[in-house]
Amino acid sequence: MVSSSILSIMASLFLIVLIFSATSALPHQQRVKRVVKGSSTSIETIPYQVALVVDNFPICGGSILQENIIITAAHCCCSYLPNDTLIYAGMYNKKEMRNLKGIRVKDVKIHEKYNYTGDPTPDDIAILVLEEDLVFGPTIGKVGLMEEDFAVPVNATISGWGSTNCNFSLSNEQACNGWFATELQSGTLTIQRRENGLIYAPSTEVTGNYGDSGSPVVANGKLIGIARNCDIVAPNIFDFDATSILDYLPWIKSTLESI
Ligand SMILES: *[C@@H]1O[C@H](CO)[C@@H](O)[C@H](O)[C@H]1NC(C)=O
Ligand SMILES: *[C@@H]1O[C@H](CO)[C@@H](O)[C@H](O)[C@H]1NC(C)=O
Ligand SMILES: *[C@@H]1O[C@H](CO)[C@@H](O)[C@H](O)[C@H]1NC(C)=O
Ligand SMILES: *[C@@H]1O[C@H](CO)[C@@H](O)[C@H](O)[C@H]1NC(C)=O
């Protein structure tokens, strides 16, 4: 049951994720053609993926950097007190929340220049410090940061529990706000350019969308981006972007040192 507070929170977020799969909830005929190609994945393949959960609803994703450190999007944090958000690691199906333990957030470090306006803004990056350490194993582990320049285009993996479908008859803000995945989805998208602190993956197929904000974008085994926004620029054409890890390395490192 999604509460009205969560709906208003969701409405105030511009989010993201992942498209889809043979096992996602909608019958095949209802799917928007070509917003496809992602699929249900296992948490073992993406053990660094976590869900940021408010009122039992995964509002965003994040990545594990250390046993007690999560990196995510700033806009996933700005509407909530740390006490409202629980971090679930090692989860594949959202229904597992019943049996898994959500971990509280002790501290939130939002980029100092981040200015939440409700629209996509720069410096959309935050680090969460957990109240207790995660226990690493086959379903829970960390991801390394991309620290070396890379050439584009490059193929990358996006994952999360966000929308698996879009209705292009609706406005850009509403088109993909629904169809939230039950099982963790992942897909491959191609990063075409990196500029102004963002990496971009225009696509007619796999994209990150509503609910995928904060989730990992990984290439060559390293975290290269944090899902931030997805605009529909024409029917069936997405322009997905993610905060570029490479461009925020100094901030990430100094923030980690300050914890
Ligand atoms: C958060 O929870 C802790 C522990 O229950 C409590 O001490 C603290 O006052 C809470 N903070 C807020 C802002 O509600
Ligand atoms: C944040 O953004 C709003 C809306 O664009 C602007 O009015 C305000 O001055 C900005 N605040 C800062 C601190 O930059
Ligand atoms: C990305 O993956 C696709 C499908 O495997 C492949 O055709 C394409 O060459 C890859 N692109 C890059 C830049 O590696
Ligand atoms: C898409 O949105 C339009 C306009 O609101 C609506 O009429 C239609 O039923 C929706 N399609 C689906 C598959 O939900």
From TrEMBL:
Residues 1-25 form the signal peptide. GO terms for biological process: proteolysis. SUPFAM superfamilies: Trypsin-like serine proteases. The keyword Zinc does not apply. Keywords: Disulfide bond, Hydrolase, Protease, Serine protease, Signal. Residues 35-257 form the Peptidase S1 domain. It comes from the Eukaryota. Pfam families: Trypsin. SMART domains: Tryp_SPc. GO terms for molecular function: serine-type endopeptidase activity. The keyword Nucleotide-binding does not apply. Belongs to the peptidase S1 family. This is Trypsin. It comes from Popillia japonica (Japanese beetle).
